Amino acid sequence: MSRGPHVTHDPYSWLEDVESPEALDWVRARNAEQAATLAETTEFTSTRDRIRSILDSDEKIPGISKVGEHYYNFWRDAEHERGIWRRTTLESYHSDDPEWEVVLDIDALNEAEGANWVWHGASVLRTGPDAYRLAIVDLSRGGSDADVSREFDLQSKQFVDGGFYRPESKGGTSWIDSDTLFVFTDTGEGSMTSSGYPRIARRWRRGTALDQAEVVYEGEVQDLYIAAMHDSTPAFERNLVSRAIAFYEHELYLLGDDGTLTRIDVPRSANPGLHREWLTVELREDWTVEDTDEAGRTITQTYRGGSLLALGLDPFLAGSRDFHVLYEPTPSTSLAEYTWTRRHLVLNVLDDVKNRLVVLTPDGGRFRESEFVGPPQVGTVEVSPVDPRTSDAVWVYATDFLTPTTLSLAEIGAEPEPLKAMPQFFDPAGLVMEQHFATSDDGTQVPYFLVRPEGLTLDGSNPTLLYGYGGFEISLTPTYSGAMGSAWLERGGVYVLANIRGGGEYGPTWHQAALKENRHKAYEDMAAVAKDLVARAVTSAEHLGVQGGSNGGLLTGNMLTQYPELFGAVVIQVPLLDMKRYSHLLAGASWMAEYGDPDDPEQWEFIRTFSPYHLFDPDTSYPPVLFTTSTRDDRVHPGHARKMAAQMIAAGKDVTYYENIEGGHGGAATNAQAAHMSALAYRFLAERLRL
């Protein structure tokens, strides 16, 4: 197995020039090759059309957010390719056919302005006489991370003439009052970090020039991201400055009316949060503090990494460190998320990658614990607040691989009220879901989910798709996918979701186990799952495919180059692959806390061992590979996929390449584009694995 770099110079660096005529000519030529041939088949057309009908279905659950008396939703379907922002009442939403009022039609806007806007969201003013009337709408050209911010009137349903306008940049805004925003964006030379994100936060008053707005905080060039926010909770209004130093280093400041900054003095690796009078601290690492008891004695306390702590903000600022431990990890559990309502805190705990909800209620200076009433008995449960400023209600989403997503509305302490259910988009009859554990090279037990036909013959002949991510403390849990179910499961394929290290399934330690010089452990975990599937005779190498995107594209790139003998096909989507150059391409510098600094010779020595672009050996036999990316991806540079494909094609390898001109890091800007990209992957896998 070859692990050393084979690239001594880079003959394909010209493909990093994203929109140069030469690079785009190369892209068009590659798109016209195997991907075009695949797209001409009747099987591709039927798969694409089936997926498109699912994405466009009127029966999908319209997720809603409460803004004043209205409930807003952004929606795409066959008639609204770019989508509409619309609103209704809760009473109407309860009905089978809600009455929606269109607030903003993105397709009509594009036609009027000759643009290709993609919706990036909106923030609504929630205080003062203009509360719930004014909004900031964020729009992206073609789906890139960079976007513009435009002031919008929710009564007239028009953009405000002469209103706030933030030119195209990575960044954002936060309402302070009807005439003032916090803004963090590109305001000229020196205003962005080396990662391409805002370095300066400003207070921007209506009618003044953006680049002359008052600076409230200025970070360092090497920082990751600077932002400022306004908390409009009644009786707890405050201004905050966030300084992201690196991906896992963060500082939070209270910004006084006089401009003074008071740091929330917790470890930089921790995630502090404020809700009403409470400070919460989510720890990534152990934290040892000193406090004084009533007798004046010094007490030393160590709080464990992965724990969630709480303390009144005022006592904390006065020097107390006597935290309430709201959650502490165990060998099998981690905190997936926590959600405040007005008076309660809901913990979502993963226990061997299965969700369990717990309610904590402040009571006399302590927290009283109770079970969440009536949680749905399915694989994955997510909870989000309806309005944590004023309400104790939460939205509850529940799903698994075979159970369509349901949405309920729950008042804490009462049975959830079902609101909407997604239909069955594929036939689950005869399918079963299991959880297994594979043993990695160092003995670690790695969980994975397996979805298969109930009467599966264990003879190694079953086409099987293995999916993983393994990075940035992101957990993968069972979720319903009509596209995957219809294109893969319904046709007899087996699906596997791997919970490898680098993710967050077992908390920060599971993530930290695969950082930097330990990155190989994530890849060993993925290979262990592949080997376990073969050992169980579920499949064999010629029938086993692997798929992943972004960091998961780096994962599958390493499966391709380090473990080619384990797979019959590999799908690599919007990937990182050139780990020597990644920190110099777009947002790559922001990920050095995950992978390391390739410009440091000592760190390059371990980074080179998981850089697929450098691990490629033209003399090695590789399985067929599909690369997909987007020209408009301004997060992970399309040059990664372009260069890797180019050197493999030059070596005569079996490469299918497709680059979508739009789409940003998500790969697609419309349902039609998403259906095309998804169908390419499933048909490529079906043909290569003989489904």
TrEMBL record:
<dbReference type="GO" id="GO:0004252">
    <property type="term" value="F:serine-type endopeptidase activity"/>
</dbReference>
<dbReference type="GO" id="GO:0006508">
    <property type="term" value="P:proteolysis"/>
</dbReference>
<dbReference type="InterPro" id="IPR029058">
    <property type="entry name" value="AB_hydrolase_fold"/>
</dbReference>
<keyword id="KW-0378">Hydrolase</keyword>
<dbReference type="GO" id="GO:0070012">
    <property type="term" value="F:oligopeptidase activity"/>
</dbReference>
<keyword id="KW-0720">Serine protease</keyword>
<dbReference type="InterPro" id="IPR002470">
    <property type="entry name" value="Peptidase_S9A"/>
</dbReference>
<dbReference type="InterPro" id="IPR051167">
    <property type="entry name" value="Prolyl_oligopep/macrocyclase"/>
</dbReference>
<protein>
    <submittedName>
        <fullName>S9 family peptidase</fullName>
    </submittedName>
</protein>
<dbReference type="GO" id="GO:0005829">
    <property type="term" value="C:cytosol"/>
</dbReference>
<feature type="domain" description="Peptidase S9 prolyl oligopeptidase catalytic">
    <location>
        <begin position="487"/>
        <end position="689"/>
    </location>
</feature>
<keyword id="KW-0645">Protease</keyword>
<dbReference type="Pfam" id="PF00326">
    <property type="entry name" value="Peptidase_S9"/>
</dbReference>
<dbReference type="InterPro" id="IPR001375">
    <property type="entry name" value="Peptidase_S9_cat"/>
</dbReference>
<feature type="domain" description="Peptidase S9A N-terminal">
    <location>
        <begin position="5"/>
        <end position="407"/>
    </location>
</feature>
<dbReference type="Pfam" id="PF02897">
    <property type="entry name" value="Peptidase_S9_N"/>
</dbReference>
<dbReference type="InterPro" id="IPR023302">
    <property type="entry name" value="Pept_S9A_N"/>
</dbReference>
